Amino acid sequence: MKLIITVYHPWDTKFRIGDHHYVREFLNDGWDVLWISHPVSFAHGAKPENRTRIERAKSGPYRHKDGPIELVPYTMLPWLNRPLLSSQWVLENTHRFCRPPLKTSLEKIGFDKPDLVWITDASMHAIADIADPKAVVVRIADDNIEFRNIPSSLSIVEQKLANRADALFVTSSPLLDRLKPEYRSKIHLLRNGVNFDHFQGTFDRPSEFKDIDGPIVFYVGAIEEWFNSEWVKNLAEKRKDITIFLVGMVGTDLSNLKDLQNVKITGLRPYESLPGYMAHSNAGIIPFKRTQLVESVSPLKLFEFLASGLPVVSTSWSELEHLGSPALLANKSDEFVEMVSKVIDKDWKSDRGDKFRDYARSHSWKARYDTAMEVIGDFLRK
Asked: Do 297 and 330 reside in the same domain of the chain?
């Protein structure tokens, strides 16, 4: 069985998103997988982090060790959030300017007639037609149009792609409620999950923690405009005995935190290292602003924190309210501080860690994969 999956990120990023975990389940199930990451172009060469991807695009498809084949398309007409290049026409035609042509690349590696095309990166919508699959599914992981740098032209193409698909997966109840009237029986709720076993065991204390004696509060994930640094600042100032570790790529202004000695901003860390950080922390936090984008977010970090036995304190938003998790949900900054203080001072990690793990165990990626395959299987058998 062959799968083509289109994903914005490369396969070998330091962090892991839902599609990484689904592909691992497909591979474990005996599928051969082609991972198509977001196209590169002449416009991407200015950033050093893109140069490796440009070289990979030039060298053609390659297989990762114990992983999928990856194809990095190179296009002469990139769809970017810039004048002219952000238009619907560019988005609908960028694939026509790929060199070599996508059809040629697929035929060369034997993926021109896959069993399944799974699209998360809608900018690669054309794969649904260029390939000749038995089934096409679309996974909407976020309310994409609410991202600051996403051109509005994406919403039109996403709608066309959803109409083209045999099945549509969404990761949260708000997304389901919004799209259900239009897509009815085609749409299915498929929340994010956790690789539970990855967070079990005994782990060495991270070197960055070696000089810390007091409680540690941990955050991992993107640090963008939805990250509420004011809540973190309030926590750091009122609980100087707590060290707050923020792990992730920073894409927003954190200048209000720079003079706080008990706030550590570390940048990205590999997924493989996260269990060690969580095992030696006292709580996990998700301090987001309650925006339209955040309302429909299904946070992987919630399940990963709980799988590690960590108590979680988060901003309250719609999807988390639907989940019924053991996380404490705050609506105000001082309430957030009070809740973090409560779970640390009463040592919820020791007292309730098993309860948190039990919740996370029921949300495994394997269970999510099985649910997806129950839907997809009907189309594959036709």
From this structure: yes
Q: Are 38 and 124 in contact (CB under 8 A)?
A: yes
Distance CA(24)–CA(12), nearest Å, equals: 13
Check whether residue 202 and residue 141 sit in a common domain: no
Same domain, 214 and 186: no
Ordered DSSP codes for 121-147: SGGGTTHHHHS--SEEEEEE-S-GGGS
How many structural domains is the chain composed of? 2
| Residue 174: burial class (beta carbons within 10 Å; 0-12, 13-18, 19+) | buried
CATH code, domain with 310:
3.40.50.2000
212 and 138, same structural domain?
A: no
Question: Whole-prediction pTM value?
Answer: 0.94
- Over residues 107-133, the pLDDT tens digits come to 999 999 999 999 999 999 999 999 999
Task: Identify the three-state secondary structure at position 138.
Answer: strand
Question: Residue 140 in contact with residue 158, Cβ under 8 Å?
Answer: yes
Strand order across the beta sheet in which 62-63 lies: 62-63, 69-71, 32-37, 2-7, 116-119, 135-140, 167-170, 187-189
- Assess contact for 72 and 53: CB atoms under 8 A: yes
- The domain containing residue 256 runs over which residues? 196-361
Q: Compute the distance between CA of residue 46 and CA of residue 43 in angstroms, rounded to an integer.
A: 7
Amino acid found at 373: M
Same domain, 164 and 20: yes
Biggest alpha carbon–alpha carbon distance for the chain = 62
Lowest-pLDDT range of 51-65, 215-229, 235-249? 51-65
| Site of tokens 């740098």 | 149
Shared domain for 7 and 109, answered yes or no, is yes
Query: Are 81 and 90 contacting, i.e. CB atoms less than 8 angstroms apart?
Result: no
Structure tokens at 118: 């799974």
Say if residue 105 is in the same domain as residue 151: yes
